[in-house]
Amino acid sequence: MGTNETNFYQEYEVFSKRSAKAPVQHQFSLLAPNEEMALIMAQENFMRREDVLDVWVVKKSHIRAMTSEERQNWTKRLDNKDYRTTKGYGYLRKKWREKEQGMLDEKEILSWKEVKKS
Amino acid sequence: MYNYVEDGDSQTTAYMADDQEKYEQFMARIEAGEKIEADDWMPNDYRQALIKLISMHGISEIMGALPEKEWVPKAPTLRRKLGIMAKVQDEMGHGQLLLRVTEDLMRPFGRNRENLMKDLLNGDLKFHNVFHMPTKTWADAGMVGWLVDGAAIISQTNMLDASYGPYQRALQRICAEEVFHAQHGESIIMALAEGTKQQRDMLQESLNRWWPSLLMFFGPASAATTGSSKQDIMIKYRIRKSTNEELRQAFLSKYMPRVFSLGLTVPDETCHYDEEKEEWIYQQPDWEEFKKIIRNQGPRSKERLRLREIAYENNRWVRRALAAQPVG
Fold first, then answer.
1. Each residue's pLDDT tens digit, B73-113
2. B326 or A102: which carries more pLDDT confidence?
3. Would you list which residues of chain A are within 8 Å, Cβ to Cβ, of chain B?
């Protein structure tokens, strides 16, 4: 590249959304000279086959990601959290069984989208 | 930190002790199946092995698109034309992914994509032996998709669990698309194999020409043949799982029965599966020729590099236009 083309490329991270219900998902990164080209390159590079509803391109320098050290500490932190999850309350299943009742677990509760119409 | 070892003062010991501890943590992480990210500490020889592997893989994807794109205007039907165009586009996309992975690894050395392109053109960055070969007939387009990509699939799926996160993630995407490439190639091969005598002859002639390149694809069995081999370090650092020879044997096991089932032969009468030894017996290709090919002295090396250079030069105006500041 000539001198006027130095620093031509910027790094962009690419995110996309497959369907209305899906969260935005990181795809990969790419080099492009500006946002518009990054969006075009994102479609060319990562969405040649997949249906997508939305694509985000974000300049990598605008992302405050964790450092290597922060990641290590973060992952170590995630232990002994039973009291925050249903796993810590699993004994209830046996208790309810003794009282001849079913457990209102996550599967059951999240199935309550519809109630009987009056 | 890149394992600088300085002489003389007391700091040396401190650095080395520090790195030794980091090295042990690194090994413990990869042995536990964790993935290493671009900004994690890594031993220098791990970084160097990855740069060499992934830059060569990436640039080979791009150089591999060149012999295939020659067949876009010559494809026999519209459907074949669309198929091979999609494949060429995929290969360029794979190249983009892999060069991006390499760039992050090279960042501490102040090197970027421009350096890779220059290295390619001046011969410091090698590309895969198969892409130095001519594609003479339409059967070659099928052969590249079926057996060359078949060989690539064998070596790339072996790295689907690679310890380096960015490469491992790129490979999931690449291998999924390679399945399409393989079937695209099979479809061309199947049509020719079930076609006229002229078509079958063309197919056989193509396989005869590609055979040595296919055996060479996986590299020599040991460093004794060509003087250097990165396979040990790649296995130690869990980048890949198998040796060159194990991969070649896997390729022969998967593809030879299919080759024979189409009524094709290979230009090596000794080639067979030895039940007792449980391995494929074959004549070694000419490894001296292999060394020449990857030194850019293959039949099409210069032309392909020139094509790459022309593409780079012809698109300069696009880069310039995009680099210009908007007016007003």
1. 999 999 999 999 999 999 999 999 999 999 999 999 999 98
2. A102
3. 1-2, 4-5, 8-9, 11, 28-31, 33-34, 37, 41, 44-46, 48, 67-68, 71
List Cβ<8 Å contacts ≥24 apart for B253-260: B253/B280, B254/B150, B254/B154, B255/B147, B255/B150, B256/B280, B259/B207
- Number of cross-chain residue pairs from A and B with Cβ atoms under 8 Å apart: 51
* Cβ-Cβ contacts under 8 Å, B112 against chain A: 9
For the ranges A27-36, A70-79, B185-194, B204-213, the lowest mean pLDDT is seen at: A70-79
**What SS3 state is found at B203?**
helix
Q: Do A44 and B97 touch (CB under 8 A)?
A: no
| Cα distance between residue B184 and residue B51, in whole Å | 30
H or E element at residue B6: none
Task: Please indicate whether, in this complex, the C-beta atoms of A31 and B103 are within 8 angstroms of each other.
Answer: yes
ipTM: 0.82
Q: In the prediction, which pLDDT does B227 show?
A: 63
- Look at phi and psi of residue A67 and say left if phi exceeds 0, alpha if psi is from -120 to 50, else beta: beta
Q: Cα distance from B175 to chain A (closest Cα, Å)?
A: 14
Task: State the fold for domain A7-62.
Answer: Ubiquitin-like (UB roll) (3.10.20)
**Global pTM value:** 0.87
pLDDT tops 80 at residue B273: yes
Q: In chain A, where are the structural domains located?
A: 7-62
Q: Is B169 on the interface with A (CB under 8 A)?
A: yes
A72-76, B116-120, B203-207, B225-229: segment of lowest average pLDDT: B225-229
**Which of B90, B97, B320 has its CB closest to that of A48?**
B90
Q: What is the pLDDT of residue B9?
A: 42
What mean pLDDT is reported for chain B?
A: 91
What is the pLDDT at residue A5? Answer: 56
In angstroms, rounded to a whole number, what is the distance separating the alpha carbons of residues A44 and B134?
28
CATH number of this structure's domain B36-319: 1.20.1260.10
Q: Is the pLDDT of residue A4 over 80?
A: no
- Residue B196 per-residue DSSP state: -
- State yes or no: pLDDT of B297 exceeds 50: yes
Indicate which of A8, A37, A40, A71 best probes the interface with B, i.e. most B CBs within 10 Å of its own CB: A8
B203 near B139, Cβ under 8 Å? Answer: yes
Could you say which residues from 87 to 116 on chain B have a Cβ atom under 8 Å away from some Cβ of chain A? 89-90, 93, 96-97, 100, 103, 112-114
- Looking at the complex, does the CB of residue B323 fall below 8 Å from at least one CB of chain A? yes
